[in-house]
Each structure stands twice: as C-alpha cells, then as structure tokens.
Amino acid sequence: MKITFGKIVAAAALAATMGTSASAQEYPYRDITTAVVWGAGGGTDTINRMIMAEMEKHLPVSINVINQTGGVAGSNGMVYVKNQPDDGYTLVGLSESNVTAAVQGGWDQKFDYWYPFIVGGSPDLISVPADSPYNTLEELVDAAKAAPGTIPAAASGAGSIHHLNLLAIQNGADAEFLFVPYGGSAPGQEAAIAGEVAMVVTSLAEQAALIEGGQLKPLAMLTPESAEIAGATVPSAFDIYDGLDAYLPLKQAIGFAVHNSASDDVKASLTAAFDAAMAGDTVAEWAAANNYDIGGQSGEEAQKIFNTLEANFAYTLQELGAATVDPMSLGIEKP
Questions:
Q1: Which of 224, 317, 272, 255 is nearest to 121 (CA)?
Q2: Signed CA dihedral, 152, 158, 161, 164: sign only
Q3: 183 Cα distance to chain centroid
C-alpha cells in the first residue's frame, strides 16, 4: 500500500482534531460523585439522593451518592471533596451544621470555600411530652419566667441549629430554660418522651412521626408560618410574642456544593440541572410528604444564607466556650 504525503497530513490533521475534541468536551461528560458528609438514611443523605436522582434527568451522566462521614461537624467529608479536583465531578452533600467545622478545628476555611445549592430544610418547633401540663407556649414560658433556669430543655448539642433556636426563643420571650445537650435530635426527643426533659426543640420532619403517634405535643413553630400536623394547627411563635423577628427564623439549609473555584461552565451546568429539578413535581411532592420547606437557592444567594448561619453559629459556640478557633481569625464577622 502506497502512503502518500497527503495521506500522512490528513491523518495528522484528524488526530489533532480528535485530540482537541476530547480535551474540549463539555461538562459533564462522565459520571459525577456526591460525597455526603453525614450518615446514610439521615436528612442530608436522603435529600441528596432525592435531588441527585432528579438532576440526573437533566444531565447526560449519572450522579453516584456515597457517604464520607466523621470528623468535626462533617469535616471528613468536606476535606475529602476539597482534596479532589475542582472540575465539578465530585460534589459535597452538606447541611447548615457544617458551618461550625472551622471554629471547632476540623476545617481551616470559611464556608465560602464552597459554591452551594440549597434544596431546603424542615422548620423547628417546640414540643413537650404528651402528658405535659403545658398546653400552650405561653404556659411554658410563664413557668420558665416564674422559675428561671429550672425547666430542662433538649435541643441537640451546643451550637446546633436547634440550640440556637432555643436561645432565640429565650431572648425573644424573655425566659430562661435549662439547656440539656444531647448527641443529636433523636436522643433529645427520646429524653422528652421519657420525661427526662420538659421540652424539646428539633425539626418538624424529625418530630412528625412522634407527634402523629401521640408521644409529643407540639406547642409552637419557630417560623412566621403555622403548620398542620396530625390534624391540628401548630401556631407560629411569631403570633404569640412580638419582636421574635429580631432572632428568628433560623432555618435548616440542606443541599450540596461544588468548589467555589470551579469553572463558570461547571457552575452553570449544575445550576441549570438543579433549577430544572427543583421546578419539577417530584421535589415538591417529596417535600410536602416529608415536612420540608423548599429552598432552591444557589450560588451567591445560597452563600449569603450560609454566611449568616456561619456567623451566628460561630459566635454562639465562642460564647459557650465550645469554639477552639477564634471566628475573627477565620474572617467570620460577628453578627
């Protein structure tokens, strides 16, 4: 077979074209992995598996969800994703609780290291054991005012969003409860059912089954809106005490993020898929069935929400003596 100079030139040109095409493939051209920093079956894990399945419908690739747990406030998972290339092929599944990792020494960055997407969160409420003598928030607050610091209250661990909401209702209602920290929402709720504490502050999603099962009695939502649960209306604390808007609401922010240093093309592709997924019926139906509020914020809008949460959490932990790193040294301004 005779090989001419022209054929050699043509082959070289084809090879160059193929190489250019391969290197210029549009994102995403291979599967994406989302590493959730909390355990399988939890709220953050469940939300990420749901939203990734919906986003897949608007992308040419699959999104695989794994769990990278442990560390301080989910720091293991964040460090894992931080150490991956910022090419958009490894995302981190996270929540508002991760903003405390830096001041607790598990993470060395402000939260704006990430470019976040917020799917939503479940609103917090105050509930008491089913056999509690308190039937309204006013009755509970009046009792706390009569004997400051004696009524035990569970609200997960120090510095959690539930603890911050407990502090907010104390400040807004001018009452003092006895905070009893627990290792999570479930142990705190179990303590309330067992009568170890007189009240519990956790999310509606976490309490719903216990309320419907008659084990907890809801007194008030810590949001401007009331809620319907177990055939009854749970009133808003905002309608009971004026001025709560100075402290509340502090809501969960559950979703995922990509490196903030990722390219504009990566951010745009993820945003388009996220927006399309959030606009679908599946997300709305899932949220309604599981007592979650829809978020839908991304990028700069979501970063502002996380910045507010980060500042509130960081300085609350510092005041409680639970921060090992000065928030100011991280560039976190006091709210």
A1: 255
A2: positive
A3: 17
